[in-house]
Design a protein that fits this description.
The structure holds two protein chains of two kinds.
Chain A (H helix, E strand, L loop, with lengths): L1 H9 L9 H17 L3 H32 L11 H14 L1 H30 L10 E9 L1 H8 L4 E15 L5 E8 L3 H4 L4 E4 L4 H6 L3 E3 L1 H8 L9 E4 L2 E9 L15 E4 L5 H4 L6 E7 L5 H18 L1 H4 L11 E3 H51 L4 H37 L14 H29 L7 H4 L5 H37 L9 E6 L7 H16 L4 E7 L15 E2 L12 E6 L3 H5 L3 E4 L4 H9 L8 E6 H8 L2 H4 L3 E4 L2 E9 L14 E5 L10 E7 L6 H12 L9 E2 H8 L1 H35 L1 H9 L4 H37 L8 H27 L3 H7 L1
Parallel strand pairs in A: 3-8, 5-7, 14-19, 16-18
Antiparallel strand pairs in A: 1-9, 1-10, 2-3, 2-6, 2-9, 4-7, 5-8, 6-7, 11-20, 11-21, 12-20, 13-14, 15-18, 16-19, 17-18
Helix pairs in contact in A: 1-2, 2-3, 3-4, 4-14, 5-13, 5-14, 5-15, 13-15, 13-17, 13-25, 14-15, 17-25, 17-27, 17-28, 18-23, 25-27, 25-28, 26-29, 27-28
Chain B lengths: L8 H11 L3 E2 H12 L5 H13 L3 E4 L14 E4 L1 H26 L7
Antiparallel strand pairs in B: 1-3, 2-3
Helix pairs in contact in B: 1-2, 1-4
Classes of the chains: A alpha+beta, B mainly alpha.
Chain lengths: ~900, ~110
């Protein structure tokens, strides 16, 4: 007798107010009823009736239970019109219309969820103060890094309470099983106090650390990752870039390194002021942040900084006087702006899109409530006739609206939590403060407020109409069909038009973004990416360029010897290593004899095989060989023939008029003479969306200093299991202490280069799809409703000879008419808001007409499809049936 | 008491079934179905019974002597005098309604202008 057991188990859902004995009674009654049922049909009926009624009973018992807990203090006898009785009535009334209830809950859920998720992101990334003491007074001294002497000049300013400088760089940590690449930061004494950092273990940096140059502080992350949270790490000696340093402490986990000035670091140590790098105005190395003194405004600080900049330009004109004679500026910017300024507009656009989506969802909810309002007009009239005041009816509707709104908000909060998770997983990596994103009560309150306000507003509209019109006699025949007024029709039509317009704005933006993404993907990068793998390396502890050259060639040869590797080469940077507008690293102005124009040129020191490996297209001349460069370098730079070099086509055309004319021409870079032996076609070194600009390639062996970094590239025969490990081990065979932080395929670099475009176009695509679905539902719902209330008219028209086709066409054209009106409005909106998008996506015509027309056509097609069903239903009206009803 | 009239249909069915004497839950369901047609579900039935007991319309009846197998322990309900009065008032009201409506339905009488 499993049915009885199941029934008894389900009774467990009842509140405690129903005592166990009584549950047994209920279960026994069911068991007897079921047991006495003789036939299968009878059993089925018993099952359907008993189980079907259970959900309602459970809900009602719970509302009783809750109101009993609350109602004890209340007077007896007002239960009839009490709030809880209204809630119970509401539950019944909503349960009777599951389609309506679920539609509203889901629509609100989607709208509220999307807005809440994006609001959380915007809030965490852009709006919140930085997690530092007196964060509103923190500023950054802009325009890159500053020299050590400039730091001293700024430190004298009265506007600043305290000032900190930080310099971070890659370093190699050795001594473990494998060498590890780490970030090491050198900070001035005020750094940790400025950002309110506390130690988790040991101590932070003190004044004496800069004198001895010994102690380092570990980041919490590095402590966990590299030392397994071992508290005994304090006092231990680590080797960073070959120099032994004593760990003096670990920063607390709550400390968030200030992203706005220089990202995080694994090790912090005090700036060594004896180092040449920090003593000369020639090196701009320190990022500088400061806290304004209490009461000092940014403008006042700026005025003082301007005076410092002017004095500095007097003292060291060759460094700090610009070409037009004005002093190099020292702009003072709030640290929050410096941290998030770049993404503000982008997130603003996304937030705008989500707000549009919420609006579309709200319009649909309004449709549903209006339709239901008309349906319920008769019920309300009856209740009024029975003596219920307008206030009581309004309260009943308000309570039902609030219940639906609350349910929608709960669904929305769940969707938002899921959305935030998705955003963290798939969102652009470059977003600052991404780690901090989570849902919080404030945002939840926002979601609930939006859901409640929407449903309350549109739920009460019909009630207000009713209150204004007053009660009709419910028994009058005219009220039976509850024919809506012309005004009600106009309102519904206006809603559809608004919905279409809003969706067009979304669809157009989605179209533009998807097109931009497609164009980005279709861009010919100008170099090979398939089967190419890269390894960024940081060679440390090298004294001379010759030594660097010898060792980097050793690594190259070791890599080339790995089975399956066809070729290996290197450059200081790789294509696509710096995307999104970061034009690293070396830009210079080569001298061309007889050419007075100052040109900024991207300079790429590379190895001889680089051109072959990446298949750069040689449009004139040739590339150099290793032997040739060695011979030329050996003969000294003073010789008439310079070292072989290659320039890009844009540079050759700019300077010499054509690629062919550039061949054999001399060029001087940083004191070294080069001869142009070849010209290669332009390529997208800095990403598909960035202009490479004029570029020159010089042999890496001719750099007059020891480079900090190099990037190896290998060309393989094809996909191969265990390749990254094999490549790393090949490096360690010749350089056992050199970290290989990552082995990544060029295809992965290429995917990463378009990741944010993919993300945002996907996001907008999803929004636009949802909006189109909502429009389709709204349009179809409105037309179906119109057809239903006009059934009598249609029946008469059919009876007096109108053809079905004609009726069908009239409904279709009504739907299309609404869509066209919406599209016209939406076009204006899309075009205006497209301007924001224009400024947001560089290099691409964000408002191209072709894509826009396509969006309009898609929208009209959707409108046509959603009008078709109502049109068919209208054409199939049976005149006899509709007339008989009257 | 007047505020409880007219009775909800389910209340009327349950009280009518109890008018003949004490019954347990299943007995009420059976009586209602046999005499009036609709099949009550146990969940709603006990909800109604609990409310009526709280309002003083029904009360627990002493356990039946003998009775069928497994039915000795079942709780039985009967109408209180107050419940009986409510039912009587409702039946009288219904009779008034019926006496008016029947001729109208038969088409014999119209409302006089």
């Amino acid at each position: 007798m499993t049915a009885a057991k199941l029934y008894r188990a389900l009774l467990g859902l009842l509140p405690r107010g129903v005592p166990p004995e009584e549950r047994d009674e209920i279960a026994a009654a069911f068991a007897a009823l079921y047991g006495a049922a003789g036939t299968a049909g009878r059993r089925l009926r018993v099952l359907l009736v008993s189980f079907g009624a259970l959900p309602g009973v459970v809900v009602l018992e719970w509302t009783d239970h809750l109101s009993a807990g609350r109602g004890r203090a209340r007077r007896k006898g007002d239960g009839m019109y009490g709030v809880w009785s209204a809630v119970r009535h509401g539950v019944r009334s909503l349960a009777r219309r599951p389609a309506f209830t679920w539609s509203v809950v889901l629509l609100l859920g989607v709208g509220v969820g999307a807005v809440t998720a994006i609001f959380s992101v915007v809030d965490h990334v852009v709006l919140r103060p930085l997690p530092y003491p007196a964060a509103e007074r923190l500023v950054k001294i802009e325009e890159g890094s500053h020299s050590g002497p400039t730091f001293e000049r700024l430190a004298g300013m009265r506007a600043f309470e305290s000032l900190a400088g930080i310099y971070t760089d890659d370093a190699n940590l050795t001594g473990g099983t494998e060498p590890i690449r780490v970030r090491e930061a050198q900070v001035t004494r005020e750094f940790f106090p400025l950002f309110g950092a506390r130690p988790a273990v040991g101590r932070l940096l003190v004044a004496s650390d800069s004198e001895t140059g010994g102690g380092v502080v570990l980041s919490h992350g590095a402590w966990v990752r590299l030392f397994g949270r071992d508290p005994g790490v304090v006092g231990r000696t680590v080797r960073i870039d070959g120099i032994p340093r004593v760990v003096v402490g670990v920063v607390d986990a709550s400390f968030v390194p200030p992203e706005g000035i220089q990202g995080g670091a694994d090790f912090w140590r005090a700036v060594d002021w004896d180092e040449e790098m920090f003593r000369s105005d020639a090196y701009s190395v320190l990022a500088v942040a400061a806290r304004l003194a209490p009461g000092v405004t940014v403008a006042q600080a700026q005025a003082e900084a301007d005076a410092v900049a002017a004095r500095r330009a007097e003292e060291v004109p060759e460094q700090f006087r610009l070409d037009d004679g004005t002093p190099a500026p020292l702009p003072v910017t709030p640290l929050l702006d410096a941290t998030v300024g770049g993404v503000r507009s982008g997130l603003g656009v996304v937030f705008g899109a989500v707000a549009l989506l919420l609006l579309v969802a709200c319009v649909n909810v309004a449709h549903l409530f209006l339709a239901r309002g008309v349906e319920r007009a008769r019920e309300m009239s009856v209740r009024r006739a029975l003596g219920a005041g307008a206030g009581v009816i309004a309260r009943q509707i308000a309570i039902e609206s609030l219940m639906v709104g609350l349910a929608g908000a709960v669904v929305g909060a769940c969707l938002a939590a899921a959305g935030i998770g998705a955003f963290r997983a798939f969102g652009p990596r470059s977003l600052p403060r991404m780690e901090a994103i989570s849902m919080d009560p404030r945002v939840l309150a926002f979601a609930v407020a939006v859901g409640l306000a929407t449903s309350l507003l549109f739920g009460l509209l019909p009630a207000l109409r009713l209150a204004v019109r007053g009660g009709e006699n419910p028994l009058q025949p005219a009220a039976r069909g509850s024919t809506p007024t012309r005004r009600a029709h106009a309102l519904r039509h206006a809603l559809v038009v608004a919905e279409v317009a809003l969706s067009l704005v979304l669809a157009a933006h989605a179209g533009w973004l998807i097109r931009a993404f497609a164009e980005l993907n279709a861009v010919d990068l100008g170099f090979r990416t398939e089967n190419v793998w890269t390894l960024p390396l940081t060679l440390a502890e090298i004294e001379t360029p010759d030594e660097w050259n010898r060792r980097i060639q050793g690594i190259r040869e070791s890599l080339a010897a790995v089975p399956g590797v066809r070729a290996a080469s290197f450059g200081l940077t790789m294509p696509l290593e710096f995307v999104g507008g970061n034009h690293c690293c070396w830009r210079t102005s080569p001298d061309f004899p007889g050419d007075e124009v100052e040109r900024r040129v991207a300079l790429h020191p590379v190895d001889a095989d680089y051109f072959d490996l990446f298949q750069l297209l040689v449009v004139a001349g040739r590339t150099w060989t290793r032997a040739e460069v060695r011979a030329q370098a050996g003969s000294g730079t003073g010789s008439a023939a310079g070292v072989a070099a290659v320039v890009s086509e844009p540079l050759a055309v700019n300077v010499f008029g054509s690629s062919a004319d550039a061949l054999g021409q001399p060029m001087t870079i940083a004191g070294t003479s080069y001869t142009i032996v070849g010209v290669v076609a332009d390529n997208r070194h800095y990403g598909p969306d960035q202009d490479h600009g004029p570029a020159a390639y010089i042999p890496a062996s001719t750099i007059p200093y020891v480079p900090m970094r190099a990037h190896m590239a290998v060309l393989t025969d094809g996909p191969q299991a265990g390749l990254p490990r094999a490549l790393a081990e090949a490096v360690w065979r010749v350089e056992p202490d050199l970290p290989v932080p990552v082995v990544q395929s060029m295809d992965a670099w290429a995917t990463a280069a378009t990741a944010s475009a993919r993300f945002i176009s996907g996001l907008f695509g999803a929004f636009a799809t949802i909006a189109l679905l909502l429009v389709s539902g709204g349009l179809a719902g409105t037309l179906l409703y119109t057809v239903r209330v006009r059934r009598r008219e249609l029946g008469i028209r059919l009876a007096v000879g109108a053809t079905a086709t004609r009726i069908e066409r009239s409904v279709l054209s009504r739907g299309l008419g609404l869509a066209l009106a919406g599209a016209t409005l939406g076009s204006a909106g899309a075009w205006l808001s497209g301007r924001i998008l224009d400024s947001f996506i560089a290099d691409i015509d964000a408002r191209d007409a072709g894509t826009f027309i396509l969006s309009v056509l898609v929208l009209l097609f959707v409108a046509l499809l959603s009008s078709w069903l109502p049109a068919r239903s209208a054409a199939r009206t049976d005149p006899m049936e509709t007339l008989r009803v009257e | 008491m007047n505020s409880s009239i007219p009775l909800a249909p389910r209340d009327l069915l349950v009280m009518s079934a109890l008018a003949d004497g004490p019954l347990h839950g299943y007995g009420i369901i059976k009586a209602v179905e046999e005499e009036c047609g609709p099949l009550l579900d146990p969940g709603n039935l006990y909800r109604v019974l609990r409310r009526m007991r709280r309002d003083g319309w029904v009360e627990d009846a002493p356990a039946a002597e003998g009775g069928g197998e497994g039915e000795q322990n079942r709780r039985r309900y009967r109408l209180t005098p107050r419940g009986r009065a409510v039912l009587r008032a409702e039946v009288e009201r219904l009779e008034g309604v019926l006496s008016r409506v029947r001729p109208a339905l038969a088409g014999r009488r119209g409302r006089t202008p």
